[in-house]
Amino acid sequence: MRRIGVDMRRLAGLLLCCLCGALASAAFAAEVRDVRLWRAPDHTRVVFDLTAPAEHRVLTLESPDRVVVDIQRTTLSTAALEQLELADTPVSLVRSGIREGYDLRVVFDLKTAVDPRSFLLKANEQAGDRLVLDLYDRSPRPAEAAPAVVKRADVSARRDIIVAIDAGHGGEDPGAIGPNRLREKDVVLAISKELHKLLEQDSGFFPTLIRTGDYYISLKGRRDLARQRQADLFVSIHADAFKRREANGASVYMLSTRGASSTTASYLAQRENEADLVGGVRLSDKDDVLAGVLADLSMTSTLDHSARVGDKVLRRMDTIARLHKRNVEQAGFAVLKSPDIPSILVETGFISNPGEASKLATRDYQRKVAQAIQAGIRDWFLYSPPAGTLLAWQKEQGGQEYVIARGDTLSDIAQRFNVSVNDLRAHNGLNGSRILVGQTLKIPAT
Question: I need a surface site. Which of 80, 98, 101, 433 has the fewest CB within 10 A?
Fold first, then answer.
């Protein structure tokens, strides 16, 4: 009898332990598996990776300034909070603890006051459940101020042509992943910065980067920034992936209002349009009036200009890369849906193709891609410069000037302006082909 009694007590103890464990497990509905942080020009984004959806609330406290996030019935199963890079953010310290037995409390001690916004993202094919906390700066940093408005009604102003350069993806959205974990977001940002540098050196152009670092901007937000900066052209740069690794070649896309021009175009547009699901966009950020916008009469002219500049860029890409298709393709890319700004999307290659990925990873090839895009942009605007710009004035005068940039050759410049090398030499009194960086060439009228 004693042995049976002892066994029964052990069994009861085991059952009690199991019951306590089950109750504790039921009490905590989710875990925070990881925490990530990115700094954008106007806000700091913190992302909590959850194992399941969880209710939360956000509080702001003063003296000292703090933002408090309470996540109901959730535990923290990572040391990621201690490893967050807080430099160049308004956050000085992050602390955590359990509140009322079951709720996770995370406290952000602040160096400067912020306006917090938060939202939950449901799990999808590319990412799990997430809680996103955006800490918006109350006053913008001077270094990140928007470019000055340069468009004027006075056509004699000879303004620069504004080119908005959009590096796809960013932040928690890496884009496509190639061999050796090569990330699309890194490749296209490097190409975008090279393109910005080239256009900055080119007389008559004013480039502006939509994304300057590793953070995410919604597809609608990218279009909005281009419009705020009064862009004459929007260029979105990508290096996407396809289901088959052998897919290869560069492409240029414009918006289609009637459907995609190919299966690949349809597939890539769907992938790019899903970027907001990964990058993290609140429901209120979605654009519900795109169909109405596309009905605007101005869209006809915008699409025509998009097709023409796209063709110029494609012809230049043909000199450095194999083309996937020899014509500008069309698909319903959400990032291109601006009714008043000619917009193109350049696929610099397939990062899923090992051969193209190895080239895209090198700075030399990134520079060549940027040079091809810049040359195509210049080709179009030399042919059809907007009224009131320096290029339009130069065209009216029957000639233009060009300041030599690093890497230029006389033959490249002649090809760019559609003149012969001999005419270019004669017009500038040159005996040979030697030119110097900073030297100004007069371009003969064609």
Answer: 101
